[in-house]
Write a structure and sequence with these properties.
Length: about 150
């Protein structure tokens, strides 16, 4: 009797798990993920932290798909120098261009530019619409709007 009860319980659990997995897959189909990557430092030795952030963003697009991801990088403090360095470094400009082609945006903190004496024209392909008054305020607003915060 106990064996039958155990077998019935296991069968019911397996069926429920299969149904739940199918439901989860259906719920995730077509759902857009919203993510804000925060790039706020000088990149470190060999610009490794910048490269990590760009690779994380690429991997996010490859895993979720272009149509399922709203991806925004917010650059402030030393992070704004990523787009300055990309002007002369194809190993940075190429992944940035590829990410933009997939729909990523790179928003730049005006306060950081001002404090470092950098003008937009010294940055790699940044339209005026991608300059925000304050990087931290932008990150706060994005989180309020449902974006997940990631700091690689």
């Amino acid at each position: 009797m106990q064996r039958r009860a155990l077998a019935a319980t296991l069968a019911a659990t397996a069926a429920a798990g299969t149904a739940a997995a199918g439901t989860a897959a259906a719920q995730n189909a077509g759902i857009t993920q919203q993510v804000a990557y925060h790039i706020g430092d000088d990149g470190g030795p060999d610009r490794a932290r910048w490269r990590t952030a760009l690779n994380n963003m690429r991997n996010h697009f490859e895993t979720v798909g272009n149509d399922n991801l709203s991806c925004i990088a917010v650059l402030n403090s030393g992070g704004v120098k990523l787009l300055q360095a990309a002007l002369a470094d194809p190993s940075l400009s190429a992944p940035i261009s590829a990410l933009r082609a997939r729909g990523a945006r790179f928003l730049v903190c005006a306060n950081s530019l001002l404090s470092q004496g950098i003008v937009r024209e010294q940055l790699f392909e940044v339209p005026s619409t991608d300059i925000v008054a304050s990087g931290v305020v932008e990150l706060t607003q994005l989180q309020h709007d449902g974006y997940a915060y990631i700091r690689p």
